[in-house]
Amino acid sequence: MIDTFLFFCLCSWSLAGVFGVDAVQSVSVTEGDSVSLNVTDVQTNDEIEWRFGGILIAEINIKNKKSTVYSDSAGGRFRDRLKLDQTGSLFITNTSTNHSGRYTVTSSRRNTLLNTFNLSVYAHLPVPVISNISSQHSSSSSSSSSSNCSFLCSVVNVGDVTLSWYKGNSLLSSISVSDLNRSLSLPLEVEYQEKNSYSCVTNNPIRNQTTHLDICEHCQPCPDCICCCYTFEAVIRLALSALVGVAAVAVLVNDIRSTGSEQHGRD
């Protein structure tokens, strides 16, 4: 039993030395950014090799600081974009979405896997566009009216994003796409003169863009109507202002009459 346990420990130690023990590190950036993939556990006489999806893209001898970058490997996607520092860390400048993938760094001298990186490069997020696609107006016999407006929020040429409608901070609906260069659209229907706030959001794992819906501007009961989302509040304010004005005039008139009566009494 003890011999079996010792054999298992020795095998585990040997495998750790050959394959490494570091977990995959996830790194996310936006297209056009630069990124640094930092190697660890480097020894002074190591010969470091970097691979992208199993393809050798760069190597460096730590002892003599001699490095080589294979710009034409992996279909030339890394041309003029790779750099190695003296520690063996890899720098990718001006990243693009075709740089997404798995990167491994090994010590060829020790036959040891040092680090594994899963790089995700996301395209720039466009600002979502909201358009009014329909408006229906109806009037009842009591002369009260209501209007429903239909909106469409859209983004084009996107990949790996989610498009969502929010009512305040509450999610109403969403749609996602993982392919590149796709277009997304999401409808929404609201009532005219509704006081809730709505927003359309597009996001990926590292960024988001938001467009707020102005119901007053985009939802009118008729083509020639003037924006009157807050008509009721405006009428109340006007009425209160009128009452204050009337009261002020009454006080002024009363004061004039009182002053006139006092002067008449003295005479």
Automatic annotation (TrEMBL):
Superkingdom of origin organism: Eukaryota
InterPro entries, A to Z: Ig-like_dom, Ig-like_dom_sf, Ig-like_fold, Ig_sub
Endpoints of the signal sequence: 1-23
Keywords from the UniProt entry: Signal
SMART domains xref list: IG
Xref: SUPFAM superfamilies: Immunoglobulin
Residue ranges annotated for the Ig-like domain, each copy included: 128-216
Keyword Electron transport: no
Stated name of the protein: SLAM family member 5-like
Natural source organism: Carassius auratus (Goldfish)
